[in-house]
Amino acid sequence: MKVIIDQDKCVASGQCVTAAIDVFDQRDEDGIVVLLNDNLPDNLAADVQQAAAVCPALAIVIED
Length: 64
Ligand code: SF4
Hints:
Blueprint: E1 2-5, H1 15-19, E2 24-26, E3 33-35, H2 45-54, E4 60-63
Antiparallel strand pairs: 1-4, 2-3
The structure holds iron/sulfur cluster (SF4).
C-alpha cells in the first residue's frame, strides 16, 4: 500500500492526523499535511483509508 498526499490541495483541517496519527502529521507553521511514512504496513490500511475518506480536500490518494 502506497500513500500519496497533495500538499497543494490540503486545507490543513487535520482529520487525517486524527484518523491515522502514525502516518500523517501537520507542519507547525501552517498545518499542511506531512506524510510520515509512504510505504505502509497492512495493519495501518484501515486507518489510512479512513483518513482519505474524511479528508475534505481529497488530498490523500491510496495505491495498492
Ligand atoms: S485531512 Fe486532508 S485537508 Fe485535512 S490536513 Fe489532512 S490532508 Fe490536509
